[in-house]
Design goal:
The structure holds 2 protein chains of 2 kinds. By secondary structure, chain A is of the alpha/beta class. Chain A is built from 7 helices and 10 strands. In chain A, α3 packs across α4, α3 runs parallel beside α5 and α5 runs parallel beside α6. Chain B is an alpha+beta fold. Chain B is about 70% helix and about 5% strand. Chain B contains 11 helices and 4 strands; from the N terminus they run αααβαβααβαβαααα. Chain B has a 4-stranded antiparallel beta sheet with strand order 2-3-1-4. The longest helix of chain B has about 45 residues. Classes of the chains: A alpha/beta, B alpha+beta. Chain A: Homodimer. Forms a membrane-associated complex with FtsX. Chain A: GO terms for molecular function: ATP binding; ATP hydrolysis activity; transmembrane transporter activity. Chain A: This is Cell division ATP-binding protein FtsE. Chain A: Pfam families: ABC_tran. Chain A: Part of the ABC transporter FtsEX involved in cellular division. Important for assembly or stability of the septal ring.
């Protein structure tokens, strides 16, 4: 699903954020990405989302070299990836329902169909009863679940998450990770960046460990 | 995984047909038009101030244009009264004068002619100057007979050519034409047109700046929203749309206000202007914006608002990069 072929990323010509990354994530796999902050986890995810372009090497997503996408194709590429952010990036001027509906609105999905999908996604994260609420009325854990509902409302083939449990207590973190496992179980490829090593160790998925921009360990779990 | 359906799941249900896509596009346009109107209404004072600034910028060139339009009517009236006077040699008698008048009337470019005999000329002169006593003491009539010629084409060049042709007719002593004032009026009108055009361009730029600045602030306020929707696959057109609509609404509001100000203004000025013109013996009325003028004003203001928003959004879209 994701192929990194000797990928490097430099910022400003000097700082090397990522160096010679070479790995493959198979379709339907769930992968953790760990490392200290500054190890390059976010840079890697930004490359997959094509917010940045690699300085060297090639990134293939579903077999396509994403560096060769034309600027006008990039939005259509991003629509096929669900992304969960650490600070959930909800829009505070609209209800939970409309936050989750945003990707469908962008794609011009018809209202009734959109409503059906939004409710299914909210139901999945257990927040259907809060659809009319504003994000500000929700707890941090609930906000993150809304963020996840928005990321999956499209049923994307690839789900990326950048420190999705960064601000949550251990129990909430475990709940969030369980959600990702659920989506993975129904076939979604999931890549989660996290430095919560204790939690990752318990979940037993393949783990890519970054250190100073290099891939230092690729641990498959049987 | 570009536009081609390559992802096994998820992609199939998102691939809309052409008509579905068109309907979604129309739906989003409608939603954004309403949404941006609602946003303007939510900040009524700010929106009204922006629209007033636009209106004021539009009123000056539009008002000048109206004044010029009125002057053009006056110009036409004046041109109609532009005539030539051919003075015949003093030795010519009345019969001869009649024949010369016939000759002049058959010249190309002459609309009609009127003979003023020496006696008639004298009578007119006396009446105009009130010099009856002084003139009766003169021996004989020193005035020549004359023929007033109305040219078919009132264009100064054509009139001048006609004058030369008439001067060549035997028996005609001199042809007088007083075109200087007509030409001055034409130059003034042209100057007015150019000033109006220059002001129109300048104030049009002013409208662009006003709308651009307002939209720039709106973009800044919705920066997070723009970043988020860009992250989840919004096209630039999608991001731009609400701002373009608010620009167009600002333009429409400004245009309507300008229209109102112009109508009020011309009503307010029309009585003294007509009275002033009447005191000079001219028929002059301030033009009002007709249906055509009003449409042009509104279309221009909407387009300017839209364009101002477009420039502002595009400049900022380039700056806004999702973190």
């Amino acid at each position: 699903m994701i192929d990194f072929e000797h990928v490097g990323k430099r910022y400003g010509g000097r700082f090397e954020a990522l160096a010679n990354l070479d790995f493959r994530v198979r379709r339907g796999e769930m992968v953790f990405l760990t490392g200290h902050s500054g190890a390059g986890k976010s840079s890697l995810l930004r490359l997959v989302m094509r917010l940045e372009r690699p300085s060297r090497g090639r990134i293939l997503v579903a077999g396509h070299d994403i560096d060769r996408l034309h600027a006008t194709q990039v939005p259509f590429y991003r629509r096929q990836i669900g992304v969960v952010f650490q600070d959930h990036q909800l829009l505070f001027d609209r209800s939970i329902y409309h936050n989750v509906a945003l990707p469908l609105e962008i794609q011009g999905v018809e209202h009734r169909e959109a409503a059906r999908r939004v409710r299914a996604a909210l139901d999945k994260v257990g927040l259907l009863y809060r659809e009319r609420a504003l994000p500000i009325e929700l707890s941090s854990g609930e906000q993150q679940r809304v963020g996840i509902a928005r990321a999956v409302v499209n049923t994307p083939a690839l789900l990326l998450a950048d420190e999705p449990t960064g601000n949550l207590d251990p129990q909430l973190s475990a709940d969030i990770m369980a959600l990702f496992e659920d989506f993975n179980r129904i076939g979604t490829t999931v890549m989660v960046a996290s430095h919560d090593l204790a939690l990752i160790a318990r979940l037993r998925h393949r783990t890519l460990r970054l250190h100073e921009g290099r891939l230092v360990a690729d641990e498959e779990v049987a | 995984m570009s536009r081609q359906p390559s992802a096994p799941r998820g992609a199939h249900s998102q691939r809309p047909t052409g008509s579905m896509r068109w309907r979604a596009w129309a739906r989003h346009h409608r939603a954004m038009a309403l949404d941006s109107a609602r946003r303007l209404l939510r900040a009524p004072v700010g929106s009204l101030l922006t629209m007033l600034a636009i209106a004021i910028a539009l009123v000056l060139p539009a008002g000048l244009w109206l004044a010029l339009d009125s002057a053009r009517l006056l110009d036409a009236e004046l041109e109609e009264s532009a005539t030539l006077t051919a003075y015949l040699s003093t030795a010519i008698g009345e019969d001869e004068a009649g024949r010369i008048e016939q000759a002049l009337a058959t010249q190309a470019g002459v609309a009609d002619t009127r003979l003023i005999t020496a006696a008639e000329g004298m009578a007119e002169f006396q009446q105009a100057l009130g010099l009856r006593d002084a003139l009766t003491r003169l021996e004989g009539n020193p005035l020549p007979a004359s023929v007033v010629v109305r040219p078919a084409d009132p264009d100064p060049q054509a009139v001048r050519r006609l004058a030369e042709a008439l001067e060549a007719v035997p028996g005609v002593d001199e042809v007088r034409l007083d075109l200087a004032w007509l030409e001055r009026l034409r130059h003034l009108a042209e100057l007015g047109q150019r000033v109006t055009l220059a002001l129109g361009v300048l104030f049009g730029l002013g409208v662009l700046l006003v709308v651009g600045n307002t939209v720039r602030l709106a973009v800044e306020n919705r920066r997070q929203e723009i970043e988020v929707v860009t992250l989840i696959g919004a096209t630039h057109a999608f991001v731009r749309r609400p701002f373009l609509y608010s620009g167009a609404w600002f333009g429409l509001g400004g245009g309507l206000l300008a229209w109102g100000l112009l109508t009020l203004g011309s009503d307010w000025l029309s009585a003294p202007v007509s009275a002033l013109a009447a005191s000079y013996g001219a028929r002059f009325h301030l033009s009002r914006l007709g249906t055509e003028g009003s449409t042009i004003l509104l279309v221009c203001s909407i387009l300017l608002g839209w364009l101002g928003a477009w420039i502002a959004v595009n400049r900022h879209l380039a700056e806004i990069r999702p973190r």
